[in-house]
TrEMBL record:
<protein>
    <submittedName>
        <fullName>Glutathione transferase</fullName>
        <ecNumber>2.5.1.18</ecNumber>
    </submittedName>
</protein>
<dbReference type="InterPro" id="IPR004045">
    <property type="entry name" value="Glutathione_S-Trfase_N"/>
</dbReference>
<dbReference type="Pfam" id="PF13409">
    <property type="entry name" value="GST_N_2"/>
</dbReference>
<dbReference type="InterPro" id="IPR036249">
    <property type="entry name" value="Thioredoxin-like_sf"/>
</dbReference>
<dbReference type="InterPro" id="IPR054416">
    <property type="entry name" value="GST_UstS-like_C"/>
</dbReference>
<dbReference type="Pfam" id="PF22041">
    <property type="entry name" value="GST_C_7"/>
</dbReference>
<dbReference type="GO" id="GO:0004364">
    <property type="term" value="F:glutathione transferase activity"/>
</dbReference>
<feature type="domain" description="GST N-terminal">
    <location>
        <begin position="11"/>
        <end position="102"/>
    </location>
</feature>
Length: 252
C-alpha cells in the first residue's frame, strides 16, 4: 500500500524543524501507534486554506468574520483516494480503513471519548497550557507562519502574546491535570496510566493528553525550567504517562 500523505505545520530552526502542533501530533501518534506508513507534507499557516481546498478538503469551522476556516491535520489516503480533515474524524477513519491495526476507538467508547474531548479543550486543561505556550510557539515558527499566528491569536484573545500566561495559568493547569489524575485513579493502583486501563490499551483520549505534553516538550525543550515544572506536578505522574508514548514520537 502507498503511504498516507499527512499535512503538518513546520517549525523554524530553533526547534530543528520538529513537529510541534498538538492538533497534528494527535494524528502523528495515531499513525505511529497503528504502524501505518505515511509521509509528511509541511504547510505554513497562511497556505493551509489553499492547500486543503486544492485537495478537496472541507472547512472545519468558521472564522470570527464568518468565513470558512480550514485547518490541519488533514490526510490524503491514496489507497482509498480519500481526504479527511479534523483530528477526531481522521482517527476514526484510520480505525475504519485499517481495521487490523490497534483501535483508538474501542467498540462502545465513542460517547465517552466525545465527552472527554470537551473536558480536554475546556478551560480545565488545554486553555491554560495554550496561554502559557502562545509566545513560545510564535517564536518557534518560520516568519510567515509566526506573523499569521500572532495576528490571529491576538485577535482571538484580545491581548498581546506577551501578556498571556502567568502564575494563574500554571495553577489552572495543575488543577486541570489533578482532575485528570483523579479520573485515572478510579481504575485502581497499577492500572492508572491510561483511561481504559493497561488492559484496554491506548485510546484516542489518551493520545489527546499525550499531544498536549509533547507540544510543551518540543516548544519549551526538555532542559527548560517550564518543562521540568510541568513534569514535577503530582509527584512525577506525568513523566510516567508520557513515557508510554515515547516509542510513538517518530516524525516520518
Amino acid at each position: 500500500s502507498q503511504p498516507i500523505v499527512f499535512y503538518d505545520i513546520p517549525s523554524n530552526d530553533t526547534l530543528k524543524q520538529s513537529p510541534w502542533s498538538p492538533n497534528t501530533w494527535k494524528i502523528r501518534y495515531a499513525l505511529n501507534i497503528k504502524g501505518i506508513k505515511y509521509k509528511t507534507e509541511w504547510v505554513e499557516y497562511p497556505d493551509i486554506e489553499d492547500v486543503v481546498k486544492k485537495l478537496g478538503g472541507k472547512p472545519t469551522g468558521k472564522k470570527p468574520d464568518g468565513r470558512d476556516h480550514y485547518t490541519v491535520p488533514v490526510i490524503y489516503d491514496p489507497n482509498t483516494k480519500t481526504v479527511v480533515e479534523d483530528g477526531i474524524k481522521i482517527a476514526k477513519y484510520l480505525d475504519d480503513a485499517y481495521p487490523d491495526t490497534p483501535r483508538l476507538f474501542p467498540a462502545g467508547t465513542d460517547a465517552f471519548q466525545a465527552a472527554f474531548d470537551d473536558f480536554v479543550w475546556s478551560v480545565t486543561l488545554a486553555f491554560p497550557l495554550l496561554s502559557l505556550l502562545l509566545l513560545d510557539v510564535s517564536n518557534s515558527l518560520p516568519p510567515r507562519s509566526s506573523a499569521y499566528f500572532r495576528a490571529t491569536r491576538e485577535q482571538q484573545f484580545g491581548k498581546r502574546l506577551e501578556e498571556q500566561g502567568g502564575e494563574e495559568r500554571w495553577q489552572q493547569l495543575e488543577a486541570g491535570l489533578g482532575k485528570f489524575k483523579g479520573y485515572l485513579e478510579r481504575n485502581g493502583a497499577g492500572n492508572d496510566l491510561l483511561l481504559m486501563g493497561t488492559q484496554g490499551g491506548i485510546t484516542y483520549s489518551d493520545v489527546q493528553i499525550a499531544s498536549l505534553f509533547v507540544w510543551a516538550k518540543v516548544v519549551w525543550g526538555e532542559g527548560s525550567e517550564k518543562w521540568k515544572r510541568l513534569m514535577g506536578f503530582h509527584g512525577g505522574k506525568w513523566a510516567q504517562f508520557c513515557a508510554q508514548f515515547a516509542e510513538y514520537e517518530r516524525a516520518d
